[in-house]
Structure formats: structure tokens, C-alpha cells
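Catalogue entry: protein

Sequence with per-residue C-alpha cells
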Amino acid sequence: MTSALPPAVLLAYQTPWNWQQFHGHFALRALAGVEQLHHDGYCRSFRLGALSGWFSVHPASGQNHLELRHSASANACLPELVARVRKMFDLDAEPRRIAVHFADDAQLGPLVARNPGLRLPTAFDPFEQAVRAIVGQQVTVKAAVTISGRLVTRLGEPLTDSGIVGIERLFPSPAALAEANLEGIGMPGKRVQTLQHFAAQVASGALALSMADGSAALIERLCALPGIGPWTAEYIALRAFGEPDAFPASDLGLLKAPVWGADGIDAKRLKARAEAWRPWRAYAAAHLWHNYSEG
């Protein structure tokens, strides 16, 4: 990545933890210019308040920690950066406790036993993830990444003096997205309206994109916005904030996971079934998504 990296900050975690899960997650979703993925590391630009810069993480071979390196600009916000990266890579999870919780469940027990290290990959920036969730409504992950990449190209501010080849831009700010002309961006007009109304609400402070009042309050605030329904709101709670009990019950991957058999399960039954998985329904979702990806 660069020949002059600063000393690493070591971020410990409880085993098991599987780098390949995170590599696979980011391999499908990385935004050119903002993120860069290597076989043994991940790097991206960031903005925290008035500060911007870059950070990278590498799993330390044979050791129970990630190595975090960062731009000199991050020294002024290092505690927040560390907290965000820990959340992003779900380093504070208690895998043994979670495994015990699911052990006796007929469907989840065997899935967890096979992959006890599965975690919740979470976005670094909640606004960015919320934008990507809205963009991703009713389209494939690949299509959503393509459109999000266009937003970055059009509206992302250059990251000056990053020193990292390929890390060149910041994800667009709420104000930039709210005020932009998004003609030809590749989304239906109503979804563009949803996206820009959401961005304007965040930019003005009318929408608190925060978990300070709990996930239920955030989900309620999001669902009150035009064009945002329960799936999008629950997905934002899960992927933007790492809410361990968020559960987008209507998600196709959850409904069609092979563990349910050839006919799958409907959203109403899945939502009722998931009550037994509280307070870790998001981890159940992670295992069902993994089961779905295995076919």
C-alpha cells in the first residue's frame, strides 16, 4: 500500500474470527477510489467531522488482533477511529456466548457449529451505508456498487495527500448528495427522490442518524421517510450500526436459505421464528446469509 506506514495500533478480539468472511464481504462491495482490498488487508478513506484521511487493517498472522495503521490526520480523532474500526470488523463480539445461545436451535445450531467465527461486517460510516442501502433497494449488490461508484465519481471530494495509490476520494457528504443533479445516475426517479430527501434530512439535522435512543427509535424514524420501508430500515440498523438484534425479515437471502428446504419460508413465519433468536437476531441473519451463499 505504501512504504511509510505509521506504527500499528493493535486491536484485539476473541477467537474465532475469520478474515475471509470480511474479505468476501468487501470483495463484493468495495468502492473504487474510496476502498481498496488486498488478500491480506483492507484500506479506505474516511471523514470524521472536519477531519479526513485514510486507514488500513491487516489480520496479524497467528495472533488474536488486527493491525490498524492510519494517516497522520487521524491522530486527532484516534479514539473514535479505533471505536469505528472495532465496530466495522465486529471485534467486540463474544462468539462463544453467541454459539451457546443458538446451540439447541434446530436450524441455527448446526449452522453456527459449522461456522462459529461468523461476525457482522458493518460500515465505517452510517450515512454511507444508509445511502448504499437505499441505492440497493430491489437491485443486485453489483448494480448497487456500480451506482454508488457513480455517486463517488460525481460528488466525492478528492482526498489530498493520501499517499495511498487508489485511495483518492471521500464518500459524498449529505449536503452534496442532497443538492446534486443526479440525472442519469442509473436509478428510478422515485428512488432518487428518496435518496435526496434522506440526505437533506441528515444534512439539516432533522433526521438523527443515531442509535442514541435505541434501534427501534431509529427504525421508526427511517420508516417515517418516503420510500424507506422495514427492510431498508432494519438493514441500516444492522449494517450501518452493527445492531446485534436487527433482522430484515423480508430479505430474499434469509427467506431462501437452504436450511428452510426447497420452498424456503415466508417473511411472516421467519419473523415469528426469529423471536427465539433475540437478542442476537443479526447473527442469525449472518449465518442464514452464509447458508444462502453456499447454495
In short: The radius of gyration is 19 Å. Strands lie at 9-12, 35-38, 41-48, 51-59, 65-70. The first helix runs from residue 19 to 29.
